[in-house]
Structures
1.
Amino acid sequence: MKIIMITTSLPPLPSGGAELQALKLGEELGRKGISVSFLTPGKGRIRGRSMMNGMPVHRLYSIFSWSFEFLSRLRKKRKIKTDRIEYDDQKEVTDEITGKVGWPTVVYYNIFYWHSLLFLWTRRSSFDIIHAHTMEWSAIVTARLGRILKKPVVIKESTMNGFQSLARFPSGKKMQAAVMHDAYFVAMTKTIHENLLHAGIRKEKIFEIPNGIVVGNEILPAQRDGNPSKVLFVGNLYQQPAKGIDILLYAWRLVHAQFPNAILQIVGDGFTPAYTDFTERLQISGAVSFLGKQHDLARYYGSADIFVLPSRREGMPNALMEAMLYGVPTIATDISGCRDLISNNVNGILVPPKDPVLLANGICWLLSNPDKAKVFGGKGRETIVRDFNMSAVADKYISLYAKLLKGETAGHA
């Protein structure tokens, strides 16, 4: 069985949780004898064929890619860079993407489509299934490729309302109809499953498979020092308003008043000066550390007393799964993905999204009750090991792939 996986990006270029999850899944599938290759756009000098974690990665690039990059650089020079932090949840839609997709994105993904078609056409007998990992332009490209190459298509819905957001594209309704017709769908969470059904996708085309995490390589800390208390957030700063970092910082001002020695550690890629200015305005700059992108996350999970995820929207957050695997007591917003991982007051705490007061109350409660927090952390680890082991998740994908190749699509994986 040979799978072509399509992603919008891969490291060392900026990549989100969906792309990193795809790499981990590909590795596990490879260990189980499934051949996995990746197609992704090339950029600058990062192009051509390479190997990543034992898998071939083809970063497609041509003179058309170069021309697009050149024009994009000219366009960016005319724009003033802004880094927006705060959002008004009463006046703005912050839990879904609503902005219309412009022509640069359309040109970009059409260039990638033609690159992919030319690349795969002569190789069409050497692979069985095309699998996209986000419900963005990559879903449109993958559905088109499957139709032309006559291959089964799997599209993973990695956000709460990704399929609905395809309507933002030019001729969006037609795009949705084409993707709906040509693809099978993986829903990571119950909410995503319900959203796909509500959009009109037939239930026999939807397979509920969660994100997975590799279990067994982590080293659990013998004892967290707790002096001072460390509260950890992991997420890309440029993913605002989705990650709710403004909510977290407002909440931290309230936490800081009760626990002045506690430190909030923020790990993630992004432009930090605007955030440091924001913390100075809130008078909490001495209690917040912006640590940037880190490759050794284990050391931060290992020393954290609490992990917090204040997101407005998620698919199934990798960082939350990792924190739970390391036994870190967790608090997250009660949204899709988080509620699939956390049972409130059993293996963590769920709070309503967009509410800094209730988020602060939850953090303070965990800091005030370390014994109960430790119980939550232990049960959180049990949940991940039992239900979200990447090996079991890969088996579900193998079952799905086999059903598609045999034409058996009347059930769930």
Note: Residues 63 and 69 are 10 Å apart (CA to CA).
2.
Amino acid sequence: MLKRCVHGATILLSCGLFGSGCADNESSLFVRSVVHRTPPGCSARASPESEMLAGGVLDTSFANDTGGAYIAALLIGNQLARVGNADQVRTETARITLRGAVVEVRDPSQGEDATPITEYTTDGTGFVDPSSGTNPGYGLMFVELIPPGLALSISRVTVAVRVFGDTLGGDEIESNQLTFPISLCTGCLIDFTHSDSTGTCLPADETTNSATPCRMGQDDLVPCETCAAKNAACRTP
């Protein structure tokens, strides 16, 4: 059974909702990984050759910027075989429209059988073309793996995420589960390279070449001079 939590209520959905069998769907639609977006472009490519993250980092010093949320670009694969045929005037129904994700945030020290810290369904959008031969089609969906305002007193969580959607043929489908660890810290992503002898951050000048991260306080170092004006944590370590 699949559990979803919507507006505080837990809903149990049977595998029958997703067509002929959950196992078949989990191999047809899958979450491959979390794509690492890098500045200055900050774009994410729907390709298995994109840079992937083995785990995430969320710096709570930037809660005013992020709301305390961790947003991931998920690389989604579709292994459904193409069925469209122009000669027979048959449209392609194996394309998948993504609608959302089911997320569980867990304390890894409590074990897999422990009650999650939180579990919820979140909306999302994306589109995945079918496979070409033995090569899956790929698409992207941005998902909140840690929701805004979630109070966490531990230094690491494990997030389990599944995505779901519909084929153009009208069948509901759900993916496998991706498990993704996220470390939480206060100030660990602030880079004080451009500071004086006391450690106080110096204003940016013509000698600095500071690249602003794609998302402040998530995964990548933040040069102190890019955030010192608005964030006291960036002024001194």
Note: The mean pLDDT is 86.
